[in-house]
């Protein structure tokens, strides 16, 4: 039963190809968990949000109540990126001389549309959500973007940790170099001293040394804080007892191929796929078109079982109507408790 995957876990990621029903499965699982008494938050990280459409109400960047024990939020990528860049800008301006503040603004304006900026901002928000959920929610369900975006997001904690570690090593070398130069100059006030000349000191070496020391310490604190945050998120993602990743698909050729690829990408990043959820499975023994359709689906699922023999698979039935509104989500949640089709 699909609900057994959720039981006891604190974080659930629901991913897969676009259009296979990720939001429906994520919402139904979240609602089922809430009805079992677990305080639950469902979070959409997909830029093309469907959470509000599914629940037939407005859901935005602030947490709202969707049902008893269940809250929801849609992470706004543009707002998240703006807030991320504003925080970075405030820090940079505090650390840089005032005459360079204009350059900081130009740099951040260019960075807004640079590759990776959006993903880094969303990753920060995901990490923040997981941290803040502790003690407030028993379960956080992430309804993720289509496969390509999600696989990049899952690999980012590793990438960002390595990048941050590189920055820390460079800062270490910079601090040692600066200390060596200051050692050459000591506390001299002589403007012709070689160390003072190299450091460009016009305020006196003691004041300059203190200001540089404070700046270096603040940079180090920021980098270490980010490094710890990404390390914690990486631990959460790779902890199969605490976190589960579900890949949702339909029994068609392209979703099956994309599922195999996504599974391989997640495996490389150390993220365990707990279950494959085959959604919208055509009914059996009804004859005609649907029976032919089901036979074709079985061919694709056989190929999937051969490629991923060790991964559990759950099948959910094709419904006669769209899932829209709380009552429809509740009915779908009941289907999750039924034996696999």
Describe this structure in words.
This protein has about 350 residues and is α/β, with parallel strands linked by helices. About 55% of the residues lie in helices and about 15% in strands. The chain has 12 helices and 8 strands. An 8-stranded mixed beta sheet has the order 3-4-2-5-1-6-7-8. Helix 10 links the parallel strand 6 and strand 7. Helix 4 packs antiparallel against helix 5, helix 6 crosses helix 9 and helix 7 packs antiparallel against helix 9. The termini are close together.
How are the SSEs ordered, and which strands pair?
Blueprint: H1 3-6, E1 11-16, H2 22-35, E2 40-44, H3 51-55, E3 64-67, E4 70-74, H4 77-95, H5 101-111, H6 117-133, E5 139-143, H7 147-185, H8 194-199, H9 205-238, E6 243-250, H10 253-268, E7 273-281, H11 288-307, E8 313-317, H12 326-336
Helix pairs in contact: 2-12, 4-5, 4-6, 6-7, 6-9, 7-9, 7-10, 10-11
């Amino acid at each position: 039963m699909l609900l057994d995957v959720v039981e006891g876990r604190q974080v659930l990621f629901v991913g897969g190809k676009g259009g296979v029903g990720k939001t429906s499965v994520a919402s139904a699982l979240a609602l089922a968990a809430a009805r079992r008494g677990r305080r639950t938050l469902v979070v959409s990280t997909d830029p093309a949000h469907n959470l509000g459409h599914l629940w037939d109400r407005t859901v935005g960047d602030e947490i709202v109540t969707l049902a008893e024990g269940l809250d929801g939020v849609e992470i706004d990528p543009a707002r998240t990126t703006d807030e991320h860049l504003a925080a970075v800008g405030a820090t940079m301006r505090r650390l840089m001389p005032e005459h360079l503040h204009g350059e900081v603004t130009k740099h951040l304006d260019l960075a807004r549309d640079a590759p990776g900026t959006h993903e880094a901002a969303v990753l920060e928000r995901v990490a923040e959500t997981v941290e803040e959920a502790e003690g407030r929610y028993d379960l956080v369900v992430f309804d993720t973007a289509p496969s390509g975006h999600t696989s990049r997001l899952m690999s980012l904690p590793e990438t960002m940790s390595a990048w941050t570690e590189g920055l820390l090593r460079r800062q270490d070398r910079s601090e040692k170099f600066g200390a060596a130069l200051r050692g050459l100059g000591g506390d001299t006030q002589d403007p012709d001293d070689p160390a003072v000349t190299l450091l460009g000191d016009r305020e006196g070496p003691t004041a300059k040394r203190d200001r540089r020391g404070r700046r270096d310490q603040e940079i180090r604190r920021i980098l270490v804080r980010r490094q710890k945050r990404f390390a914690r998120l990486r631990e959460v993602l790779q902890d199969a007892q605490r976190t589960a990743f579900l890949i949702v698909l339909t029994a068609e050729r392209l979703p099956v191929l994309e599922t195999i690829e996504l599974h391989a990408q997640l495996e490389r990043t150390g993220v365990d796929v707990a279950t494959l959820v085959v959604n919208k499975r055509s009914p059996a023994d009804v004859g005609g078109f649907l029976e032919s359709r089901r036979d074709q689906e079985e061919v694709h699922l056989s190929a999937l079982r051969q490629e991923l023999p060790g991964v559990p698979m759950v099948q959910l039935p094709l419904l006669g109507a769209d899932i829209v509104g709380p009552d429809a989500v509740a009915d779908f949640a009941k289907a999750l408790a039924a034996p696999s089709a």
